[in-house]
User: Fold this.
Amino acid sequence: MPFASFDSILTHMFVGTRGGDNRLRIIKKLERRQFNPNQLVKELGLDYKTIVHHLEILEENGLVERAGNKTYGGIFSMTEFGKSNMGLINRLIRDLGEGK
Assistant:
């Protein structure tokens, strides 16, 4: 069985699943600077558990990393891998805006 390309994995994570739009919004915030979950709640107007859930998915997929206290959320930032894929992520955002 062939492996999925990273392009198709990102597309599925951000477009093909419920909550993908929230993950995109989180990534765009983290592209600019580090945030803890409470700061993202204020920035994005989402529930704390929703933010933490999406951060965990992004962390599991190597796009963000956590520093500090893991019990209370810590500080999240983009990984080098995540930063290197922002071109693809921005293309997905553009395609969504164009209804593709």
